[in-house]
Amino acid sequence: MTDETATAPPRKAPDKEEQASFAAAARQALESSGGWVGIAAAALPTAAFVAVNSISGLDWAFIALAGATPVAFGIRIARREPVRAAVVGLVVAAVCAAVAALSGDARAFFLIPTVLPAVFLVITLGSLLVRRPLTAPVLNRMAGGPRDWRRHAALRRIYTITTWFAVAFFGVNFVLRLVAFLADQLAILTVLEVAAAPAGLALAGFSIVAARRAVASVASVES
């Protein structure tokens, strides 16, 4: 056995470190969305609206929504989640309910949530077309990257790739919602609504891990 082979570092350590980083990102994403209880609380108004509508009709669905929304708000406040997030939940539920009430169709409750991913898709794709990947302003700060990140090929590549992942996420989200909306599948729309936030946060967490690794590689080269 040569000295070079004897002193070679073990190969498994980086793999375990990488797995730990991504596991931590997944846990952080789940915690950021309020954990399983927070996710359930956020889904309560929509689930109540859809369930009661399928049983008793639209009028009773609005009553169920009016009762479930303050309960969800109270749960989130009791769990000391950010007040802004809880208020946003109230506003979103109110706006979606107003659209459904004006149209007289329960499906319209999901009209805005169906359209929004398409808006985000256009914005994100546009940022790539002008070579200003949208994830860079957020990820670079959280990853501790330099302000002149455009000068570093590794960082440009990571931010471009993660922005493409965001494009794929918004694209798939929009297509699935649109298909379910056109098919009048309210239960599927509810599932997609519940899953969107934690899935998006998980993508952001994994992207931050990748960006931090790129920042570390840039720092090692500069040093």
TrEMBL record:
It comes from the Bacteria. It holds the Pfam family DUF3159. The chain crosses the membrane at residues 36-54, 60-78, 85-102, 108-130, 158-180, 186-210. Keywords: Membrane, Transmembrane, Transmembrane helix. This is DUF3159 domain-containing protein. It comes from Pseudonocardia humida. InterPro entries: UCP010219.
